[in-house]
Amino acid sequence: MIVARGLVKRFGSFTAVDGIDVEVRPGEAFGFLGPNGAGKSSTMRMIGCVSPPSGGTLRILGMDPRREGPAIRARLGVCPQLDNLDQELTVRENLTTYARFFGISRAVARARALELLEFVQLGERADSKVEPLSGGMKRRLTIARALVNEPDLVLLDEPTTGLDPQARHLVWERLFRLKQQGVTLVLTTHYMDEAEQLCDRLVVMDGGRIAAEGSPRALIERYSTREVVELRFQAESQEEYAGKLTGVAERIEVLPDRILLYVTDGDGALAEVHRRALAPASSLVRRSSLEDVFLHLTGRTLVD
Ligand SMILES: Nc1ncnc2c1ncn2[C@@H]1O[C@H](COP(=O)(O)OP(=O)(O)OP(=O)(O)O)[C@@H](O)[C@H]1O
Ligand SMILES: [Mg+2]
Q1: Which residue has the higher pLDDT, 162 or 62?
Q2: From CA 230, how far away is CA 295, in angstroms rounded?
Q3: Ligand 1: which residue has its CA nearest to atom 12?
Q4: Does residue 75 register a pLDDT over 50?
Q5: SS3 129
Q6: Which sequence spans correspond to the domains of the chain?
Q7: Phi, psi of 161 (to 5 degrees)
Q8: Could you give the CA distance from residue 241 to residue 128 in angstroms, rounded to a whole number?
Q9: Distance from Cα 31 to the centre of ligand 1, integer Å
Q10: Which of 33, 41, 202, 203 to mutate to test the pocket of ligand 1 (most atoms within 8 A of CB)?
Q11: Ligand 1 pocket check for 39: Cβ under 6 Å
Q12: Which of 217, 245, 211, 212 is nearest to 231 (CA)?
């Protein structure tokens, strides 16, 4: 669906996307995971054929975005990072008007709008204006709008940023259904749980480059341990305790507010901490997550 080789995006002398290789296969959900400024949106805009690449090669649906932008866009659904719904129009009209850009007949557009509003659970708000909708509803409407042309490939730039947990789960559930229908999804996120839940494969992006690529499970296996022990010590600095933990873990990360022990057996490691008479104010044993992968790869935590 997408093949990028050495893809570059520059803004003047600044390089936002620094030679990335990406391949997205039909029917998969593919994610770009990374912090603010990683280059996720810049990449999505190149894939969406609204921003020309500065270098490298890019093929979308077998076509060249430089020459075949309109033909590609006809088969894409795009949900941009910021909702750009028409506030003057009703919920339904946002879909039917958008459908006209694709040359879809009025009758088909009306039928499809009804169906899509049901799909995103906005059927009852069809005749409401956009402005009073909640953030989650607006997001769902933007997603519905992206589906008006029955796209083969849907691009979602941070589909759930800023939504409360309930609203996020509703969006995830809808995206999961789309995937089940065979639609290829490409999404960006800085939510680890979103990437883990939705993505078959993902790339971890940082500073315009790809730091790692694989399925969530493969990334966790490769870059982290099975379990993590989180320790918080009542102290000015966690650092002074780190020295006393030598040998307890395969790897130790010292963060400003806690120490992370990367281990196979969390309970065993915690017992050893207690044996050394170190008394953390709190402790937690958990499974490794993509957060740990990110920390390992970049040395930084990925805060929302
Ligand atoms: N039109 C532009 N002109 C100049 N610099 C830009 C432009 N668009 C993006 N950038 C810069 O490129 C870098 C990558 O931006 P981009 O929006 O792709 O990041 P992102 O990963 O989507 O971040 P976020 O999570 O904040 O959305 C940033 O440093 C940004 O300031
Ligand atoms: Mg962005």
Answers
A1: 62
A2: 14
A3: 16
A4: yes
A5: strand
A6: 2-215, 225-287
A7: -65, 135
A8: 58
A9: 17
A10: 41
A11: yes
A12: 245
C-alpha–C-alpha distance, residues 78 and 203, integer Å: 20
Total residue length of the chain: 304
State both tokens at 84.
């750009």
154-202 pLDDT tens trace: 999 999 988 888 888 988 998 999 999 999 999 999 888 899 999 999 9
* Rounded Cα distance, 301 and 304, in Å: 10
Q: CA–CA separation, 255 vs 110, rounded Å? A: 54
Residue 303's pLDDT band, with cuts at 50, 70 and 90, is low
Helix (H, G, I), strand (E, B) or coil at 283: strand
Angstrom distance (rounded) from CA 148 to CA 141: 11
CB atoms within 10 A of CB 123: 14
| CATH number given to 225-287 | 3.30.70.980
163 closest CA partner among 145, 137, 181: 137
- Average of pLDDT values for 3-11? 98
CATH number of 2-215: 3.40.50.300
Residue 17 CB neighbour total at 10 angstroms: 29
* Element (DSSP H or E) covering residue 24: strand 14-24
Report which residue type is found at 134.
S
Nearest atom of ligand 1 to the alpha carbon of 205: 21
Identify the residue whose tokens are 């307890």: 248
Q: pTM score, two decimals? A: 0.90
* Ligand 1, atom 30, residue with closest C-alpha: 37
